[in-house]
Amino acid sequence: KRSKDLHNGIGGKSLEIKMEVNSGTSCFYSSLANLFRYYSLSATELDIAIATNFMDFAYQDLQSSNILPGQRFFYKNHKDIINIIKQEFNATLLYCDNPQLHQETIEKILGDRNPLLLLIPSPVLSYTVRDFHPENVQEQHCVVLRGIDNKSGQGIITDCYAVDNSGNINVYSGYLSYNIILENTKSFIYTSKENVGTFVCPNIYELFR
After folding, report:
1. Count of other CB atoms within 10 angstroms of residue 102
2. Which has the closest alpha carbon to 118: 187, 18, 34?
3. pTM above 0.85, yes or no
4. How would residue 38 be classed by pLDDT, with cut points 50, 70 and 90?
5. In this predicted structure, what is the pLDDT of residue 138?
């Protein structure tokens, strides 16, 4: 049994999904690998990164631009990565924007015992001990939402790429305000056993031929 009901909450119940989580070298790819592992699918973080041609990172100073003042990181669109995963792994990941409009959807997904990957700004993660400079960098982070404790109003999350100022990578499992999650999450990703039922991990060596 992968999860347990804690007490009355989400639609009458709160719950926590139990899952094995390993740390990784990328918040997004390691979260994907842990999500696949939850469904007993064999694909490492490296398998996923190579099959999707890694992320293309860039940094742009917007002070002199006509867009928005400040700095911003740009990288390969998560939707593009999801499309590649569907093609290379024969697995369907579902992507949803604006979680505030989809609170019932989030709670139904969790109620069906499916974890979600949240794309959320790093500075709102109250548990992190990492400094962010400059402060207005719009850095996104990926964490796993495993449940909700409605008694305390907390989301139950796991961060498999919790980096401190010394560069140490740890796994954080604990709580984050559910209101903070709903107000700050930019988008979320999830799947189900049915959507990954024909999963096939590509031979990464063949991808270089």
Report:
1. 17
2. 187
3. no
4. very high
5. 59
Nearest 5°: CA angle at 33, between 27 and 37?
Answer: 140
Structure tokens at 20: 């094995």
pLDDT band at 197, cuts 50/70/90? confident
Rounded to 10 degrees, the C-alpha dihedral 11/119/31/83 comes to: 100
Distance CA 174, CA 128 (A): 11
Mean pLDDT of the 75-102 span:
81
- Which DSSP state fits 175? E
Task: Name the helix (H) or strand (E) containing 84.
Answer: helix 78-89
Given a contact cutoff of 8 angstroms between Cβ atoms, the answer to whether 28 and 55 are in contact is yes
d(CA 123, CA 136) in angstroms, rounded, equals 9
| Helix (H) / strand (E) containing 28 | helix 27-38
